[in-house]
Amino acid sequence: MDLSGVRHIQARIADIQERFGIPGGVPGLDFDNVLNKAMHKGEKPGQAAQKEEAAAAAAVEAAGAGTGAEKQQEARAPREVKLTGYAPHTKGGGILLSDASLSQMVKAASEKYQVDPKLVSAVAEVESGGNQGAESPAGAIGVMQLMPDTAASLGVNPYDKQQNIEGGARYLRQMLDSFGGDVKKAVAAYNAGPNAVKKYDGVPPYPETQNYVDKVLDLYR
């Protein structure tokens, strides 16, 4: 039986293990036992060594792939977008307003009307995702989805992004004042109107409004 080829393979395995710090010992220290086990199982020594080499190579590949795999997983994971001057949100997918100028408009409008910027941000995300070009089938316009009549009563042009956001923040301020600072009722009123909230003394039993309130509050909290 010519073992020279087997010994050569065994030496390569030992070198791989030693260079990459793979646990389990160096085959050269225990190769006779490997040969004996292989013969007892009816395997040729070369087959046993090849299996051991394959196992060592797999271990090397796994050890070397760790960092790359972690980077790929990190790249696939959703990244949280943080608005300047805003507390980050971790629930509900996070704030989507990634445009720096838009975030500044939200901040300015929030300060002007003394509304928590996190609340304005949450409403803006749920309403339009921060998209000024969004328009609902009912005719709501822009970032915070102002109806034309509401925008007119607030004295803003809903097609102007900054004015639209200011109008939304001002309307939120009005709803907060109407309901004694109750954020849940104010958010419900933003969606369904204050009369509906007063009628039911809380969130109206409309699936759309209930879902809307849940989404906004998940982002806000």
Mean pLDDT: 73
Secondary-structure-derived class: mainly alpha
Portion in helices:
55-70%
Number of helices: 10
Radius of gyration: 32 Å
Total domain modules: 2
Q: Uncertain spans, ≥5 residues at pLDDT below 50?
A: 24-32, 34-97
Strand content: under 5%
| CATH top level label of the largest domain | Mainly Alpha
CATH-level-2 architecture of the largest domain: Orthogonal Bundle
Could you give the order of the helices and strands? HHHHHHHHHH
Shape: elongated
What secondary-structure arrangement, pairings included, does this model have?
Elements lengths: L3 H17 L10 H10 L4 H32 L23 H14 L3 H12 L19 H7 L6 H18 L4 H10 L1 H7 L6 H14 L1
Helix pairs in contact: 1-3, 2-3, 4-7, 5-10, 7-8, 8-9, 8-10
Give structural notes:
- This protein folds into 2 domains: 4-76, no CATH class; 100-220, Orthogonal Bundle (Lysozyme).
- Helix 2 (31-40) packs across helix 3 (45-76), helix 4 (100-113) packs parallel to helix 7 and helix 5 (117-128) packs across helix 10 (207-220).
- The radius of gyration is 32 Å and the shape is elongated.
- The protein has helices at residues 4-20, 31-40, 45-76, 100-113, 117-128, 148-154, 161-178, 183-192, 194-200, 207-220.
- With 221 residues, the chain is an all-alpha fold.
